[in-house]
Design a protein that fits this description.
The chain is α/β, with parallel strands linked by helices and 315 residues long. It folds into 2 domains: 155 residues, NAD(P)-binding Rossmann-like Domain (Rossmann fold); 148 residues, Alpha-Beta Complex (L-2-Hydroxyisocaproate Dehydrogenase, Chain A, domain 2), CATH 3.90.110.10. The chain has a 6-stranded parallel beta sheet with strand order 3-2-1-4-5-6, sandwiched between helices. A hairpin with a 2-residue loop joins β10 and β11. α2 packs across α9. It is globular and about 50 Å long.
C-alpha cells in the first residue's frame, strides 16, 4: 500500500488532476499583491503559483499555501531569486510598486515604479519571454510602454502578450451603472477605453449593455484609489487570460495594449483573448458627442504618458 504525504499532497494531485497554468505575481506582499495571491490560489486554472517580492514573501507564501486548493505555492524574496520565480511561467502579473506617499511628487512616484517595472521586465525577457504579462503597476499609461521598450531591447517583444490591466475601471463603471439603473452590476457591460488615469479613462456609456441613457453630469461621476477592488479586478482579468490560453472562445475584455485603434501606439479598448494572448483588437464603435470630446482630451494626456515611458528606458 502506497503512502500518501499529507505535506506535499503530490500523490493526491497526480491522479486525474486537471492541467493548469503556471502564474507568477511580482509584488505579492503588497496591498494589491496579497489579496491577488489569495484569489489566484482559488482559481482552478492555476496549477503553480509563484509569489515574488523584495520583502515578506515567506510569510505570505506560508499563509496562502494553507488553502486546500489545487495550486502549489512557492515564495521568492529579493532580486537574487527573481529568475527562479519567473522561469517557466505562463502568466506574469505585476502589481509591484509603491503607492504615492505624503510629500511625494508624481515624478518621484513615476521614477520609482518605472525603475521597478524595468527590472522585473528584464527578468521576464530572460526567463519566460513567451509569458502573458499583465501590468498593474501605476502609472499604467507609462509602465506598459516601459515594458514594451525593455522587451524590444531584449529582442523578445510580442505586443500580443503585453497587456495593461484596466479592469478596475470597467468594474467600477459596471457598479456605477448598476446603482443608477437598479440592476445587478454583473449583468452590465460598460466598455472603458483610453487609458488608466484621470481624463484618459473614458467609459463609453452610449455602448452600455443593456442599453440605457445618461446625462453628461452622471457620466462624469466616480473616482478613487483601491487595493482590494484592484486585486479583484486583476484576478478577473488574469482569469480571462487563462481561459484564453486554455482555448475558450469569445473571451473579450478591455485592456491597455499596443494598438492601431487610434494614432497613438498604446490605447485601451476591447480585445479578444486566445491561446497566444491578444487575438483581435476590436474597433471603438460609434461614439456620441460627449465621448468624442472626451476621447480628444484622453489622447492628449496619453501621448505625453506614453512618451514619458519610452524616454525613461531610452535615456
Amino acid at each position: 500500500m502506497q503512502e500518501v504525504s499529507l505535506l506535499t499532497g503530490s500523490n493526491c494531485r497526480a491522479k486525474g488532476a486537471a492541467p493548469g497554468f503556471k502564474v507568477a505575481i511580482l509584488g505579492a506582499s503588497g496591498g494589491i499583491g496579497q489579496p491577488l495571491a489569495l484569489l489566484m490560489k482559488m482559481n482552478p486554472l492555476v496549477s503553480v503559483l509563484h509569489l515574488y517580492d523584495v520583502v515578506n514573501t515567506p510569510g505570505v507564501t506560508a499563509d496562502i499555501s494553507h488553502m486546500n486548493t489545487g495550486a502549489v505555492v512557492r515564495g521568492f524574496v529579493g532580486q537574487p531569486q527573481l529568475e527562479d520565480a519567473l522561469t517557466g511561467m505562463d502568466v506574469v502579473i505585476i502589481p509591484a510598486g509603491v503607492p504615492r506617499k505624503p510629500g511625494m511628487t508624481r515624478d518621484d512616484l513615476f521614477n520609482i515604479n518605472a525603475g521597478i517595472v524595468r527590472i522585473l521586465c528584464e527578468g521576464i525577457a530572460k526567463c519566460c519571454p513567451k509569458a502573458i504579462v499583465n501590468v498593474i503597476s501605476n502609472p499604467v499609461n507609462s509602465t506598459v510602454p516601459i515594458a514594451a521598450e525593455v522587451f524590444k531591447k531584449a529582442g523578445t517583444y510580442d505586443p500580443k502578450r503585453l497587456l495593461g490591466v484596466t479592469t478596475l475601471d470597467v468594474v467600477r463603471a459596471n457598479t456605477f451603472v448598476g446603482e443608477v439603473l437598479g440592476l445587478d452590476p454583473r449583468e452590465i457591460s460598460v466598455p472603458v477605453v483610453g487609458g488608466h488615469a484621470g481624463v484618459t479613462i473614458l467609459p463609453l456609456l452610449s455602448q452600455v449593455n443593456p442599453p440605457c441613457s445618461f446625462t453628461s453630469e452622471e457620466a462624469k461621476a466616480g473616482a478613487g484609489s483601491a487595493t482590494l477592488s484592484m486585486a479583484y479586478a486583476a484576478a478577473k482579468f488574469a482569469d480571462a487570460c487563462l481561459k484564453g490560453l486554455r482555448g475558450d472562445v469569445g473571451i473579450v475584455e478591455c485592456s491597455y495594449v499596443a494598438s492601431q485603434v487610434t494614432e497613438l501606439p498604446f490605447f485601451a479598448s476591447k480585445v479578444r483573448l486566445g491561446r497566444y494572448g491578444i487575438e483581435e483588437i476590436l474597433p471603438l464603435g460609434p461614439l456620441n458627442e460627449f465621448e468624442r470630446a472626451g476621447l480628444e482630451k484622453a489622447k492628449r494626456e496619453l501621448a505625453e504618458s506614453i512618451q514619458k515611458g519610452v524616454s525613461f528606458v531610452n535615456k
